[in-house]
């Protein structure tokens, strides 16, 4: 009876994982397709103001990862129930910010692998300042 109970617990643990928790491809082409499939997507740029001014993803909100009030602003300005794309220059800051956002209760977070450098290298569009 004990092996049956363990098997049942294992199967239930597999089905308990939500779709949003499944890790998927975060490279630019996959992210570009994901953006198109997410009408409620929030886009978060965690670079500096100066970096943001050189060009950013469409509809991106700037909350620099290095700001002391990053967590407070994220909780105030973003909806944890909606999908969230986080990016930076190369991917390091966005990975750190994504981990922090997950601790704050955000569920459907994707971090752009390789950051905006990989995005532009793949020929993906940026919004440029006028």
**What's the Cα radius of gyration?**
17 Å
* Bulk shape: globular
Tally of individual helices: 6
In what order do the strands lie side by side in the largest sheet?
2-1-3-4
Poorly predicted segments: 4-23
Which range best describes the helical content: under 10%, 10-25%, 25-40%, 40-55%, 55-70% or over 70%?
40-55%
Main sheet summary: 4 strands, parallel
Secondary-structure element order, N to C? HHEHEHEHEH
Multimerization state? single chain
Mean pLDDT: 86
Number of strands: 4
Explain this structure:
The structure is a single chain. The protein has 130 residues and is α/β, with parallel strands linked by helices. Helices cover 43% and strands 11% of the residues. It contains six helices and four strands. The chain has helices at residues 2-16, 28-36, 49-53, 70-77, 92-103, 115-121, and strands at 42-45, 60-62, 84-87, 109-111. It has a four-stranded parallel β-sheet with strand order 2-1-3-4, covered by helices on one side. Mean pLDDT is 86; it is low at 4-23.
List the helices and strands and how they pair.
Blueprint: H1 2-16, H2 28-36, E1 42-45, H3 49-53, E2 60-62, H4 70-77, E3 84-87, H5 92-103, E4 109-111, H6 115-121
Parallel strand pairs: 1-2, 1-3, 3-4
List keywords for this structure.
single chain; 130 residues; alpha/beta; four-stranded parallel sheet; 6 helices; 4 strands; 11% strand; globular
Brief summary of the model shown:
The chain is of the alpha/beta class.
